[in-house]
Write a structure and sequence with these properties.
Layout (H helix, E strand, L loop, with lengths): L1 H11 L19 H13 L4 H7 L4 H10 L17 E4 L6 E5 L2 H8 L6 H11 L10 E4 L1
Antiparallel strand pairs: 1-2, 1-3
Helix pairs in contact: 5-6
Length: about 140
């Protein structure tokens, strides 16, 4: 059976063209659990979970709960340490900090009005942060 699998994967070039993860056959193929252990080790050493999932050909939404079941806290999709920076919402008149958010995304969600796109707002804030430009009624500074 393995020889036929190898033949057809080779015949249709599904390994080189990206459909199959291996050249076929049982030899050298890791199990899901082996992949999971490697993903956990590399994630805990600071690698991004989303990129690891892509490399191992596993869906992020299926891997994340498995890591959480093992007691691993996933703070962001990027890695065990938060990569996002806190951002201060500053009143443009008084120059006083009104609020501090854990990330630009959190700030965008907080100020997003009904019918608006928080991702677009986050993009605007990201482009104007650490300037004195007013963006969505406020000045934004990373901390």
């Amino acid at each position: 059976m393995d020889n036929r699998e190898i033949y057809w994967i080779n015949y249709y070039k599904t390994y080189s063209d990206g459909y199959n993860c291996t050249g076929g056959g049982e030899g050298g193929i890791k199990t899901y659990e082996e992949d999971l252990e490697e993903i956990i080790n590399r994630y805990q050493n600071g690698e991004r979970l989303d990129l690891l999932c892509k490399e191992y050909h596993h869906d992020y939404s299926s891997i994340k709960p498995r890591l959480e079941e093992k007691g691993i806290i996933i703070e962001t999709h990027a890695g065990p340490k938060k990569l996002s920076k806190q951002i201060a919402q500053i009143d443009p008149q008084t120059k006083q900090i009104i609020n501090i958010y854990p990330s630009i995304s959190a700030a965008a969600r907080a100020i997003c009005e009904d019918g608006k796109n928080p991702k677009a707002i986050a993009n605007h804030i990201s482009k104007q942060k650490n300037t004195n430009n007013i963006c969505h009624k406020y000045i934004w500074k990373t901390l």
